[in-house]
Amino acid sequence: MAKQRRIDPLQVLVEVAVITIGIVLAYQLNTMREVNKTLDSERKILREIKSNLELDLIDLQANMNAHQNAVVLIDTIKNWDGEYNGVIGKMFFDIFRDYLFLPQTSAFETLKSKGVDLIVNDSIRINSQRLYDFYYEILVKYESEYAANQIYDDFEWIVTTYYKSFPIRSSTHPIPKVNSTRWLKDDELVTRLDLAQFEHEFSLQICQQVRGEINSLINAIDTELSTE
């Protein structure tokens, strides 16, 4: 008859403890890997968002400069007291042309596809959503859809009413129907210039607000990334 092997309770406890510790360590290691992977993804998307925002600032600043220039040109035309100069036609073109803001949204769209909760920092997450889904929406819709801001129609009216020839893509100066500059004081023309000035100044205010939001978000992202 074979002799039964005596089970040592202490040895069993040690073996169970070793297995348990191994499982716990493996779980913790896997958890750490997942946390690091999520953290890497968060920082990558933050860098991409920052890069997009920096491009948006360039686009936005160019539009702001154009709006500011248009206001100056309007004042110049309204106070013109010299002879007609072909440069006046170029002024009209710059005043009444469209300046559209085209934001870079690829990084934010990627974030939304992965889930905005990927960004742990509540302030950055909330401010990102507010910038893209609120401020950008307002600016884009105002510039492209708001009827009163579609002032290019006024440019076409000016060209039809006051010019015999208006070669936009040529070095030839526009030729007015009347050589004098009295038509620059016409009530209808002045009214259209006044409305254009209001729209440029209002667009400028919106752009300034959006620029502030962009700079604030970039600074917050820089602070967050500096904790690496």
What oligomeric arrangement do these chains adopt?
single chain
Give the CA-CA distance, first to last residue: 68 Å
Sequence of strands across the biggest β-sheet: 1-2
Low-confidence stretches: none
Helix/strand structural class: mainly alpha
**What's the alpha carbon Rg, rounded to whole Å?**
32 Å
What does this structure look like?
The protein has 228 residues and is mostly helical. It contains 6 helices and 2 strands. It has helices at residues 9-78, 87-96, 106-114, 122-144, 152-162, 187-225; strands at residues 163-165, 175-176. Strands 1-2 form a two-stranded antiparallel ribbon. The longest helix is centred in the first third of the chain and has 70 residues, at 9-78.
